[in-house]
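the two lines:
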Amino acid sequence: MGNWERLVWNQRELLLSGLNVTVEICVLAFVGSVLGGLVLCLIRLYVAPLRPIAILLIEFFRATPIFVQLMWVNYVWPEILGWPNTFFTAGWVALALQSSGYLAETFRTGIEAVPKAHREAGSSLGMSRLLILHRIVMPQALLTAAPSLVNQFTVIVKSSTLVSVITVPDLMFQSQKIVNIWYEPIEVLTATAAIYIALIFLVSQAGKYISDWLRRTFGLHA
Amino acid sequence: MSEALRQSLDLALFWEYRFVLFGGLLFNAAIFACAAAAALVLGLCAALLRVSLMRPLRWGGTVYVELFRNAPDYVMLVWVHFVLPLLLGLALRTRIEFHPFVSAVVALGLVYSGYFAETFRAGIQAIPKGNIEAGRAVGMSEALILRRITLPQVVWRMLPEALNIFVSLFKATTIVSLIAVPDLMYRVSMVTQQEMRPLPLYTGAALTYFAVILVVATLLRWASERWRRTVLV
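prediction for all of em together
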């Protein structure tokens, strides 16, 4: 057990700081992907002139591997757009791009599942289109999308391990740093894998609980 | 700024190295094929454990699935490549090293077997009990029931979901460049170091993967829908 103490327990501050960065980057990427996905989906459904662009972007984000996107955002974007200017930003932006493509499709399924009569009922009451979207369509669409949203968050956590490649000091980065100091990978890498597996398991269980609770509370049976 | 844009869209450099780079794509395909075969076999075994009537076997299956389904690809890849050979070496008292290709296939095969297991299980549990009982009533063995009654229906049911997993698996093969399997991404980074022009190379790589995945996935989905319509109602 001496090795575990030396390589894992005594390095806990480094590992925890890495975990902290992992959590930060995942939360930022998730918020970014929900907003991005919503915008892409609304453009695809309601802004006819921009629809082909939205479809192209959604398909591009969905069909390109996350690692390729990460490298692309990290190396190409700063030259073209002058942004993102830190590795941290490049990391979460790439993660957000990938998931926004998937979430755009999730939201679209949710919106299209709302019966047409609901919309018509709204407009017969004199509600504006924006108000109908805000009060009738989106609440139901979000409830339908809840399980996929949770699932997408776990995907983000899994993909976030790749940001260590562009030297963002997340959990994976710190654990590889420890490996490179001692050249004894067994304990550190096993502990890291266990932390990630536990983290993702907890996130998915908690998310499932929350989305079930939302559905029960707001009375949508699916 | 517009100069940078022109450079990144000028894919002549990418085209110049086309043989080297597309050769890398073959590695992606080879790893995908091997890992997909491993994941299907392991996933089916795990799914059969999970629907087994014996409780310890069921628990074993559940632990296996949760373990690998929740493991990030990259973490698994690094663990299999750097830790597993050492553990095996300690157990067998010899020095073992995995070829990066082997590590890539093992790691991706394990992770994706977890996803396939869940899909298989959902497919198996959706089969009406009467079908299996009918098989038993005419004297079929359990293996024959699995082969002739259960699996065909499972395959029909899980095909759309399985195609999604295959797409994810193919996308995941890009990370094998990180343990020095000479795939497309690995070669792109090598050429980048030589030419010092990341813009056209990484843009070309992104567009290549985009085109390949979009075209192949669309064709497969189309073919599978056609097949599903012709085989059953």
